[in-house]
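My current task is to audit a protein record that another person submitted. Thanks in advance; the entry in question is below:
***
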Amino acid sequence: MNGDDVENKSEDVCESFAYQAKTDFKYLVDIYGFELTNEYIDHLNCKIIYTKSTLKIELDFNIIDELIYLRIFRKSFGDWPMKIDKENVVNFSSLLSAYKPALSIKDFQPQGWKFEKPLERISILFREVASDILSEVKWVSEFELIRMIEKDRLTN
């Protein structure tokens, strides 16, 4: 494959990812009241963004890294925080480590561009481990999750 073929193929993969993500994460709209507010697709990256009043969810498939990232943002002083804000941004990998320590985030990453099963599994587990945050019952910061993970490691 030449460069143009790879670029076209990767863009097709991103479009397929976006379609499946909107299907697998439909519960965000139907149950938790989120709105699909942005969809960004190019040959290197696919990002789907859902928002509601004080929460934003970013689902990002990076073609080059072959990784799926999932983050929840909480508005702080009326603005969306930067990704490095440990008080107002929570990563799926931290939620998974804190609430399902027997599982590894590596088990939820694509093999090459085959994202279908990992994305479906992420969707199911995200709903389970983030339900209190998604329903705005309780916020758990990245700092709190790290403490939970460390405490679990010390006791096991």
